Amino acid sequence: MRSGIFTPGTRGTRWVAAGAAMAMAGLLAGCGSGGSGGGGGSITAYVYGDDAVKVQQAAVDSFNKTSDVKVKLVSVPGTDYVNKLRSSMGSPSAPDIFFNWGGGSIKPYVDSKDLVDLTSTVKNDATLKDGFLPSIMTAGSLDGKIYGVPMRGMQPVMLFYNKSLFAEHKLQVPKTWEDLQKAITTFKAAGIIPFALGGADKWPELMWMEYLLDRIGGPEVFRKIQNGDTDGWGDPAVLKTAQTVKELIDDGAFGKNFNSVDYGNGGAPTLLNKGKAAMHLMGSWEYSTQLGKAPEFAEKDLGWTAFPTVAGGVGDPANVVGNPTNYWSVNARTKHKDTAIAFLKTMASKTYAQAVVDNGDIPTTSNAASLLSSSPNPEFANAQYQMVQEAPSFTLSWDQALEAQYATPMLTEISKLFAGTTTPEKFVEAMKATR
Asked: Where is the signal peptide, in residue numbers (predicted)?
């Protein structure tokens, strides 16, 4: 998934990060160390090690030119990141600032009072208060409190489609569930898989559950679950979501072999660009994936739209799910809180936002719209930005919003639902029993 348009590693590689064994040894300079950072001391910032690190390194280099307290950026390999952070936070080598996904990824640190509550800081600082899209700030919060400042690009889940196939079969892009069902029937009759789905990787299936629950029951249903109430899985909208998934599977919406199709190795994207599948529900990095694998298709025939409405549902059709962005959080034990916050404020600057655009991502800053004309694909960049800007709610991917003890069994149960080895009713009961 490399093409220089987006940085999908923050979505895809976190799956191995969550269960990887820690492979880094030795202690790094801990919170607010003062030795090698110059007369004013230094703070350490952990960042997920991927191609986007160069943007954060440039920001650090610029900040250090005028700050007495210097920032040391530590790039931790993606497969080691989660465990490295976990082990470091409880030790003298804890970072002062660290990269995270918001939601469940920081809940253990919030519960143990390891993070600085930034709510009042953001409220009273115009740069932070007005610098980012509201839905993005909310998505990274917990219990109404802000613990992180956005620092990378947005990654909403979008419905991608093959323009040529829709034109050939005289179909409109689905806006409603009725439109979607008509497309399924038409494409099946033509021997075309309606939706590509990388079921072998499990996480692509999650996107269907996320959007369906949002459209059927609204974002409040999952928000209740995210806040720790597992009885929220018993909401009627959850059962309706699972039943709708079963109907899609039984109708052949994903073809017959989707459980053996992967995403990581290009299986599902290839079905779309070869015309064997008509649509693909995927994160915004699908564009960069297609540009890398089938550039002509990406430039001429790849279309994108929002997830359709569902009849009888109460969710706002403008709501979005996916990965709002990544965040910087501040360790409550830092000796240089003011410096840490000063560095976080630079994330709202036009200079930083431009660097994010130049790297092929879509910034979450409120000033980003004026910068997108320089994006590798301005049309796609603007559509994506507008989608998120107008979203009343941006629900974080469930497996990132929940702690691992809940996310892991959830993925297992969703996989069983798609594989047909459990029923919608049993799915609900299994999730309600998760403790």
From this structure: none
User: Hey, how many other C-beta atoms are within 10 angstroms of the C-beta on 401?
Assistant: 25
**pLDDT digit string, tens, across residues 249-296:** 999 999 999 999 998 888 999 999 999 999 999 999 899 889 888 999
Question: What are 45's two structure tokens?
Answer: 């910032």
Q: Which helix (H) or strand (E) holds 248?
A: helix 236-250
> Would you state the structure tokens that stand for residue 293, as one six-digit string?
């694998």
Element (H, E) at 400: helix 398-401
What whole-number distance in Å separates Cα of residue 116 and Cα of residue 371? 31
pTM to 2 decimals? 0.82
Residue closest to 85 by CA, chosen among 113, 44, 123: 44
What DSSP assignment string belongs to 95-149? -SEEEE-SGGGTHHHHHTT-B---HHHHHT-HHHHHSB-HHHHHHT-BTTB---E
Tokens of 26: 């030795």
Domains of the chain: 9-154+325-396 (3.40.190.10), 155-321+403-432 (3.40.190.10)
Q: Closest Cα to residue 209, out of 403, 404, 417, 409?
A: 417
DSSP tag of 205 = H
Residue 196 φ/ψ, nearest 5 degrees: -70, 145
Cα separation of 47 and 57, whole Å?
10
Q: Give residue-wise pLDDT tens across range 53-96.
A: 999 999 999 999 999 999 999 999 877 898 899 999 989 999 99
CA separation for the pair 403, 396 (Å, rounded) = 13
